[in-house]
């Protein structure tokens, strides 16, 4: 069985390949795609340099794929044309099954970041290709623990919203579990880890580091101002603030049920993840 992984040179893609190898998939049966394939040369898998903008290149790279782990593009605002190319190429190549990394409740989530995922899920449904949606929650690694320790605080606009973040390694292992087993076709898995509020995250960072760290909740408008002030481009700052605002309303809370079922074990505790980050 040939498994192709897009975005293989990114953090999640690399971890997914490592999880596949750990589950006994031969390196010869894995193809890692990306723009800087030298980053995964040490994994021993077949690599192909390809870009989401190149439909023909993608079609050739997908040839013979029994399963495709389609890791969503990292460029917000560019995903729809990029993902359209990936889906078209997968259909052209006759891929056996597409496993797509989405966002929690993509079909109903009103977060700005969710819009592109909703479109991509519909593209896959309309394509007629067998699919699985891995609706990944936030990565714990999204939070700059070192910066929080250095400055003694976290800032945001998430209020007391519960955020079901998990480690990239947990999401990658769950993806690998789907790729090496059957019975997942047409399913959408809502994946999230141990839920916490931003205040609880700050307290955990303080506990693990032994240094004072607090959370300051801001209005979305003020949060945009703060982000722009530290160099975040305004359009992306607005997306981040919107994500926090929706998180305050519960958009990023996901029970651990699906993730733990795919992992076959408990999710990595927040305390463990923060201890590793510290």
Automatic annotation (TrEMBL):
NmrA-like domain segment(s): 2-251
Ranges in coiled-coil conformation: none
CDD domains, alphabetized: TMR_SDR_a (cd05269)
Range of residues in the leader sequence: none
Pfam families given in the database record: NmrA
Superkingdom assignment: Bacteria
Taxonomic path: Bacteria, Bacillati, Actinomycetota, Actinomycetes, Micromonosporales
Name this protein carries in UniProt: NAD(P)-dependent oxidoreductase
Species in which this protein is naturally found: Paractinoplanes durhamensis
